[in-house]
């Protein structure tokens, strides 16, 4: 077992979690929740998305949220940015890190972005270049790495083609997404066996969804390959509007419980994390789907 001593957790609940909720959380409640998340020991919070409100109405208040939160200087506050117009709003809101996104499968990219993969590249290059000129770090998301809801299995070569281009454009970190939660530890191992030889693993993060209950097992397999950065959403919030049946992200609270009991440090306070999850339960008026919150709610 060659597990890292410390792992970085990137909390994506305020964006990836809330964008799939039918209930639209009022702006001030989003701000209150992010402020509480900022007090848990997290070092990274993806606060919102500057996608056009027509596509993601749940996050139409992105500028207000980003400007309204209490910034902790020890935390990177990130946001999803689809194009140059979105970048202008993100810069106005003084977001710390810009996240660009695309899919490795053609059909999902068309459904999600309304563009082919080849047509998406120049749009993202413009965003990456502009963000760099504004001295903002850039994170790249690649979806459907382990399977597409429309095309099925996606070849590793196709995934690498997209990843190579984003790194060539100058992104700082790449997050590889199991968008529909189809991956198994064996599939993760086969992919990472090649990926760790091709890329600097310190610039790779994994983004697992728990649709089939495999997310923690896939995190564990990723640790075997030296991966030290994972995306998660508190309480298991999330999903993908363009991936039918995809449930939420791996739950931050479940992930922290596993890592801490393995002796792997995260810097995150479990008690404060549960407090933040409890707050969102009240806002949504329903229990969050994570195992830790099921235990908490039963007490």
Automatic annotation (TrEMBL):
- Which Gene3D superfamilies does the annotation name? Aldolase class I (3.20.20.70)
- Limits of the Pyruvate carboxyltransferase domain: 7-274
Question: What PANTHER family is this protein classified in?
Answer: HYDROXYMETHYLGLUTARYL-COA LYASE
Q: Which residues form a coiled coil?
A: none
Give the GO terms filed under biological process for this record.
ketone body biosynthetic process; L-leucine catabolic process
Q: Which UniProt keywords apply?
A: Lyase, Metal-binding
Family listed: Belongs to the HMG-CoA lyase family.
Name by which UniProt lists this protein: Hydroxymethylglutaryl-CoA lyase
GO molecular function term, any single one: hydroxymethylglutaryl-CoA lyase activity
Q: Which SUPFAM superfamilies match?
A: Aldolase
For this protein, the Enzyme Commission number is 4.1.3.4
